[in-house]
Amino acid sequence: MSREVAWRVFAAEFNSSSYEIRGEGEKTPSYLISPLGAKINRIFVVGVLTDNENVGNENEPVWRAKITDPTGTFYLTAGQYQPEASMALSKLQPPCFVAVVGKFRTYSPEEGKLYVSIRPERIGKVEAASRDNWVLETCQATKDRISAIEEAMKLGEPDMDKLMQIGFSRPLAEGAALSVKHYHPDSLVHYRNMVSDALKFLLPEYQTGPDMRSESSSPEEIEVPEQDEKDDVDKEALVLSMIESLDSGRGAAWDEVVQKAKAQGIEREELDNIANSLLDKGFVYEPVLGRMRKI
User: Fold this and answer.
1) What separation, in Å, do the N-terminal and C-terminal C-alpha atoms of the chain show?
2) Which pLDDT does position 218 carry in this prediction?
3) The pLDDT value given to residue 250
4) Phi, psi dihedrals of residue 124, rounded to the nearest 5°
5) What percent of the chain has pLDDT over 70?
6) Disulfide engineering: 132 pairs with which of 147, 214, 257, 266, CB 3.0-4.6 Å?
């Protein structure tokens, strides 16, 4: 049996997946079909490790972790059957950039609800540039899947062979056909916006130094946002700088951030939305309740 490809998928797409194809034998692989047609058995993720905790005990550790990307959060669980990943998680101190290769796992507490997470095979600390490269590569892979779904939606009956004739790879053609039949998409605007937001994540407004830039990225590869979108980027960058300036070592007190933001014309409701966006994108985390720190 050939080794399964490790798909590059953003958290928002991965967490929206609700279609699982279970293998019928011990050696028959199972797959998670994403809304954009990724036929996932294994997945490759690079992001910010914001939390890791041993919910087991010293003799039988079970590590749970959270990794954020520009679109949301991946959830990881590693136990006795993932000794290499468990050992790595026990030594990592959040926040830090990490790369993960693992398999999907699902949990269904009741009919109609499916929660997904990653069972890591390997996890290691990386530099910021590796995260930026992953974001760019995942944006391209996501755009390819969007194109495949668009072509599949044009067909009266989604067909893998017809999609392969257009030029899509067999795994993507098969996944796109299965996805359209299961999810019945009527619009892909949400996912196009997701790719655009992920690219804006790499703009200089969000970077803290030259080492945060990807060597492979260039101005031509980054979409320039419209003025309204640029205003949102500026406000997020402003709040990020406030959090950094108010941090005396234990994190910025949220009440102080609220006061400083109000002085800059940012009201509480808008500030909450900005803070949630920064948390989702992995720019800040909460070391304790009521305080925020820049990553």
Assistant:
1) 41
2) 38
3) 79
4) -150, 155
5) 88
6) 214
Domain for residue 215, yes or no?
no
How far is it, in rounded angstroms, from Cα 77 to Cα 6? 18
Which single residue is written with the structure tokens 């102080």?
Answer: 256
CATH number at residue 53: 2.40.50.140
Q: DSSP letters of the chain?
A: -PPPPEE---HHHHHT--EEE--SSTTSPPEEE-TT--EESEEEEEEEEEEEEE-S-SSS--EEEEEEETTEEEEEEE-TT-HHHHHHHHH--SSEEEEEEEEEEEE-SSTT--EEEEEEEEEEE--HHHHHHHHHHHHHHHHHHHHHHHHHHHSSS--HHHHHHHT--HHHHHHHHHHHHHH--S--HHHHHHHHHHHHTTSGGG-SSGGGS-TT--GGGSPPPPHHHHHHHHHHHHHHHHHHHH-SSS-EEHHHHHHHHHHTT--HHHHHHHHHHHHHTTSEE-SSTTEEEE-
Domain range enclosing 278? 225-294
Same domain, 144 and 188: yes
Rounded Cα distance between 187 and 27, Å, is: 37
Residue bearing tokens 């034998």: 25
Same structural domain, 10 and 121: yes
In the chain, which stretches have pLDDT less than 70?
A: 1-3, 25-26, 205-233
